[in-house]
Amino acid sequence: MKSLFHFSFNVTDLDEARRFYGSVLGCPEGRSTDTWVDFDFFSHQISLHLGPPFKTELTGRVGEHMVPMPHFGLVLALPDWQALAQRLTEAGTDFVMKPQLRFAGQLGEQWTMFFLDPFGNPVEVKGFASATILLLLITDPLGNIPLFVNALKAVPDARRARVIVREVLIAFAVLLAFMFAGQGFLAALGLSDVSLQIGGALVLFLIALRMIFPPPEPSSPVPMNEPLIVPLAIPALAGPSALATVLLLVSQAPERRMEWIGALSVTMLVCALVLLSAERLQRLVGLRVVNAFERLMGLVLVSISVEMLIRGLHALARSWPS
Question: Could you give the residue ranges of the DSSP H alpha helices within 231-286?
Answer without folding.
Answer: 240-252, 257-276, 278-285
